[in-house]
Amino acid sequence: MHDQVDPASSATEYAEIALREALVNALVHRDLRRAARVAVRIFDDRLEIWSPGGMSDAVGELDEMVQHGGVSMPRNPLLAATARLLGLGEQLGRGLCVMRRAITELPNRRLELRATTRDFTVVLPSQLSRPATTRPLV
After folding, report:
1. DSSP of 83-132
2. Is domain 4-129 in CATH 3.40.50.280, yes or no?
3. Which of 50, 51, 114, 132 lies at a CB distance of 3.0 to 4.6 Å from 45, suitable for a disulfide?
4. Who's near 135: CB < 8 A, 6+ residues apart?
5. Cα–Cα distance between 42 and 122 in angstroms, integer?
6. What is the pLDDT of residue 28?
7. Which of 17, 36, 38, 31 is nearest to 104 (CA)?
8. Where are the domains of the chain?
9. pTM (2 decimals)?
10. Stretch (H or E) spanning 38
11. Tell me, what's the pLDDT at 56?
12. Could you report the average pLDDT of every consecutive run of 10 residues in the chain (138 residues)?
């Protein structure tokens, strides 16, 4: 049995722009004072990127940032500058907005963000039609 690809999707399982933004954000905003590493978990129906280091009060409201962008306040400015030089980021505070826009272009898919003061998780839905699972594939 072959997985069915949604007609509006590209050849990749996850929206490439959203995946790139999520990975770059996880690295440039992670808290290097914590021993934990950025984690990527792949499920049947989604990909989760977890990063140690949550939202700062100075950043603003998460919903507002997702809708309109925010202020660029990377915890790791050298990594952020390197990502910008490599064309992987702009340092404009628009990463969450870019992710949301890329996901909402897909039918019946939505971006999920889980933010605490200690960590941040981005959940990207698969573009393939499969049943949901709670067990990681990788």
Report:
1. HHHTTS--SSS-HHHHHHHHHHTSTT---EEEE-SSEEEEEEEPSEE---
2. no
3. 132
4. 43
5. 12
6. 87
7. 17
8. 4-129
9. 0.73
10. none
11. 63
12. 46 86 89 91 94 69 57 78 83 75 82 89 85 62
Tokens of 91: 């340092």
Give me the pLDDT at residue 41, please: 96
Closest CA to 56 of 65, 47, 48: 65
In angstroms, what is the C-alpha Rg of the chain? Answer: 15
Strand order in the sheet with 112-115: 39-42, 46-52, 119-125, 112-115
Burial letters 6-17, b for 16+ CB under 10 A, else e: eeebeeebbbee
How many CB atoms within 10 Å of residue 124?
A: 23
Six token digits for residue 38: 């950025």
Nearest-angstrom CA–CA distance, 105 and 14: 12
User: How many helices (H) and strands (E) would you count in the chain?
Assistant: 4, 6
* pLDDT for residue 39: 96
Structure tokens at 84: 């910008």
Q: What is the pLDDT of residue 10?
A: 47
